[in-house]
From TrEMBL:
GO MF terms held by the record: serine-type endopeptidase inhibitor activity
Protein's UniProt name: Fascin domain-containing protein
Organism, as annotated: Botryobasidium botryosum (strain FD-172 SS1)
Gene3D superfamilies in the cross-refs: 2.80.10.50
Domain of life of the organism encoding this protein: Eukaryota
Short name of one Pfam family: Inhibitor_I66
């Protein structure tokens, strides 16, 4: 099932964590890393999970935006990009059933880093080979009141 334009929460199947930029970032305008956020990050955000905007493009691809930044691949990881939108990816978001999706760009898939035990921000979202549950994500549409 293809996703429509709108606002979504994205969660990792591997650990159930919400996917987003960490609320504690440096103030520079360099691309910002994306993580499977631990509970302490959600607490900083008053219990709210990060919201993503999905925009369907021609050819079935998507523009994924988080925290007012388009996303792309920088140094092998998913990053929020402030200005150089030429680096913004046109992502494939493919259903694999059971309300789960794979997200990819140029044949490489979102996957959670496995070596992030010492990073307080949680596992980074990388782009590479499929890694089972670490490469599966749940997209939950956010209902907006009128």
């Amino acid at each position: 099932m293809s996703l429509g334009n709108g606002t979504y929460l994205i969660q990792s199947k591997a650990n159930g964590a919400p996917i987003g930029r960490h609320p504690v970032e440096d103030k520079s305008l360099i691309p910002k890393e994306v993580f499977a956020l631990p509970q302490n990050a959600i607490n900083i955000m008053d219990g709210r999970q990060p919201e993503w905007t999905l925009q369907k493009l021609e050819g079935g691809k998507y523009r994924l935006t988080i925290g007012n930044t388009s996303t792309g691949v920088v140094n092998g990881g998913v990053r929020g990009i402030f200005f150089d939108h030429s680096e913004a990816a046109e992502w494939s978001v493919e259903s694999v059933g059971n309300e789960l999706y794979e997200v990819s760009f140029d044949g490489k898939f979102w996957t959670l880093a496995s070596d992030s035990a010492d990073d307080f921000r949680g596992p980074k979202v990388l782009v590479g080979e499929k890694q089972g549950d670490a490469s599966l994500f749940r997209f939950i549409r956010v209902a907006r009141g009128n």
